[in-house]
Structures are given as C-alpha cells and as structure tokens.
Design brief:
There is one protein chain. This protein has about 300 residues and is α+β, with helices and mostly antiparallel strands. The chain folds into three domains: about 50 residues, RNA-binding S4 domain (Structural Genomics Hypothetical 15.5 Kd Protein In mrcA-pckA Intergenic Region, Chain A); about 100 residues, Pseudouridine synthase (2-Layer Sandwich), CATH 3.30.2350.10; about 150 residues, Pseudouridine synthase, CATH 3.30.2350. The protein has eight helices and 17 strands. Strands 5, 6, 8, 9, 10, 11, 14, 15, 16 and 17 form a ten-stranded mixed sheet that branches. A hairpin with a 7-residue loop joins strand 12 and strand 13. It starts with a helix and ends with a helix. About 35% of the residues are buried. The mean pLDDT is about 90.
C-alpha cells in the first residue's frame, strides 16, 4: 500500500492533502529515516512516526465582526450570514470577511485545517446571498462535511423572489454551468463538454399576480451562481440581481408604488439559504437548521401579498 494511503487510514483525523504535506515537509520517519515520498510502499511490520506541528497562525487577521451563530460545538459552526458579507478574503476584499470574523469568534477552539489555524469553509454563499453556511473547526470535520457535499447527502434549500411565475410550478433545471462566452465576469448555461454539470429543483411557494413569485430551490450540485443562472435560463431571474436579473419597464410598472420602492431599494439579489441539513462528523447525528427570510425580503413578500389580496 502507498504510504499516504496507509497513513490516511491510520490517522482519520488528518486529510489526505494534510498527510501529503507532512510527508513532503519531512515530518514522517521510519526507524529514524525521513520518508518524504507519498508513494513509498509500506512493508509488513513497518513502523512510522508522524510528527504533526502546531497549526500556523492564519494569515487573515482576526476581526471582531458580529455573527449570528445558529449552532456551535467543538467540531463545527452553523452561521446565518447577512447579505453583504464576503466569505473569503481576496483581491479587492482583504478583510472584513466571514473568515476574519470566525478567527476572532473561535479563537483557540480552531485546531487547524490543512495545518493552518483557520476555519474550514466547506461551501460558499455569494456576497449578497444571505442565509445558512456550515464551517468546520478541524481537518476531520472538514473532510467529513466535504465528502457529504461531494456525495450530495447535504440538504440545502433556498428561497428566492423571482420575476414572473414559473410554469410548470415545479420542475428540475439541468444544464452545464461555465463561463459566459462573451462576458467572462458572468456564468451561463453552456453546452457540454464545456462547463460542469448542474441541476436545480424548484417549486412555486407563493404567487404575486403574474409579475413575481416566491420559489424554493434545492440543489443537486454546487456551481458558481447556480440558482441565479438556472432561474435566468428558464426565464425567471431573481428580483434585484444586478448581474442576471435586470428589470424591464414592464416589470417596474407591474407593482404598486410601495412594492416598487421596496424592490428598487433592494441592493442585492433576493436569494436566501433557508435550510441546511447534514450528518454530524463526530456523532453521525442528522442535524437540520432553518432560517427565516431576512427583513428586506420579508418586507417585499408582505407588501406583494397585501397588494395581491386587495387587487
């Protein structure tokens, strides 16, 4: 058996990538001899010593940013992310992110992911999408949750306010998602073999005349901008989406003044990650969490419902 695979089986709290880096960094020995080749063949009766250094301090700075923590234990957290909060530091957003906030919130409870004292972001939400996101505190939890996302056993349900009323009222949207052929800043449904396979199941939850509706979306995959792209592809873009859901004059004129003002003031796509469910990486207990619509989306739904009942 390859040494990296042997160690991964023997040390389930460490990921394969972490074990590979430990080997390459000279932290694995056999009879005092350093073994750095991950493909080294393990022989019967061999004994190996693995030295795991203390986690390095994370490069992003810890910042005291308020968080809504829905659940937390020694292995993971579930956060209700507000719209406007970026998940990861990156070009143009070096700090003020969810990662910076988690470093301050978790402190010494982070035992490290990939050898760095940082939270394990298993999945992402767009900056202007609100809702639930699960975060791992250590390698084993990160590995377990990542595997559940990969095998699609994670439950994820979103709520979106869309232009128009989907017909049929429920269905499955399937189409590869890749870079837009003309605008590299956007994603689009593209023909195979381009892009990556993606599927979204939707269901109409509430209709506001013919102009808009509230829909529920459940993901079978997790591609960049998947829900936004798929709903636009079938003709029902998300209200407020600055990239995929621009308003036309007909859409602007379809609402009362109150509703039009609320929609005009919405500075993000009306998309919310409402439900997440998964198997706990340590206890194997099935956990499920839900989040109500945030106030900006709730106000729009309330006014559209009122206008519909009085029309």
């Amino acid at each position: 058996m390859r040494l990296d695979r042997f160690l991964a089986d023997a040390l389930p709290d460490l990921s394969r990538s972490r074990i590979k880096s430990l080997l390459q960094e000279g932290h694995v020995t056999e009879s005092g001899q350093t073994i750095s080749d991950p493909s080294y063949r393990v022989k019967p009766q061999s004994e190996f010593e693995v030295s795991v250094p203390a986690p390095e301090e994370a490069t992003p700075a810890a910042q005291d940013i308020p968080l809504t923590v829905v659940y937390e234990d020694a292995d993971l957290l579930v956060i209700d992310k507000p719209a406007g909060l970026v998940v990861h530091p990156g070009p143009g957003q070096p700090d003020g992110t969810l990662v910076n906030a988690l470093l301050a919130h978790c402190g010494d409870s982070l035992s490290g992911v990939g050898g760095v004292k940082r939270p394990g972001i298993v999945h992402r939400l767009d900056k202007d999408t609100s809702g639930l996101i699960v975060v791992a505190k250590h390698d084993a939890a990160h590995q377990s949750l990542s595997a559940q996302f990969a095998d699609r056993s994670i439950d994820r349900s979103y709520r979106a306010i869309v232009w128009g009323v989907p017909m049929p009222p429920s269905g499955r949207i399937e189409g590869n998602i890749g870079r837009h052929p003309k605008d590299r800043k956007k994603m689009a449904v593209v023909a195979p073999p381009r892009g990556k396979s993606a599927a979204t199941n939707y269901r109409l939850r509430q209709r506001f005349g013919d102009a808009a509706s509230l829909v529920e979306c459940k993901l079978e995959s997790g591609r960049t901008h998947q829900i936004r792209v798929h709903l636009t592809h079938i003709g029902y873009p998300i209200v407020g989406d600055p990239v995929y859901g621009r308003r036309t004059p007909a859409r602007r004129n379809a609402f009362t003044e109150d509703a039009a003002q609320l929609i005009g003031a919405l500075n993000r796509q009306a998309l919310h990650a409402a439900v997440i469910g998964f198997e706990h990486p340590r206890t194997a207990e099935r956990l499920k969490f839900s989040s109500e619509l945030p106030s900006d989306m709730e106000r729009i739904v309330s006014v559209l419902s009122r206008d519909q009942s009085t029309s």
